[in-house]
Write a structure and sequence with these properties.
The chain contains 7 helices and 4 strands. By secondary structure, it is mostly helical. A hairpin with a 2-residue loop joins strand 2 and strand 3. Helix 6 runs antiparallel to helix 7.
Amino acid sequence: AHIHEVTIKHKLPENLNPKRIDRVLYFSGDEYFYRMDKYKSKVKPETYKLFDYVIPYLDKRMAKLYDSTPYLIHGDFNPYNIRLHRNSIKLLDFEDACLGYDIHDISILLFHYQLDDKFELYKKAFYNGYRSIRNIDIDEDVVKMLMMARRVNFMNYILAISDDVEKYLDVNTKRVLECLKEIHGPEFNLD
């Protein structure tokens, strides 16, 4: 929350143009790996259809978040980039800093806990701590959308870094479909 309190007020130099988390594949050099011939054999038809549906669906919604002026955020606010040092929380690894909103960093952190049995407890504790410094409304639908986008981003990216992706893609295809059914209703399918 402290970092957002500072960066929301800070005007970046005109010549600095950081990336934005305004689409699923937002990193420089990100490609639609699932469409590339060398990776297609790793992607089952259902997952391929899911990518083709969910990436444009999420891109459209993520772009709408940028209706107001974005500010510098951490961009990879995950548990591995947080350290306790002399009774103070320190953030590490700012190489993914980008223009966005507090909701991006919050969603990235929560993404890493969402499968834990104590997720709701962790989320509540985090929200309470964050709001003790920066009192904001947190739109749960946006948090869920951004967590889904991160999952889809990882599903695409794993194709380029691993040969053993079948189980990961199967499990996460099901998870993304469950999220879409929450949004569109239980009858949702990709056909």
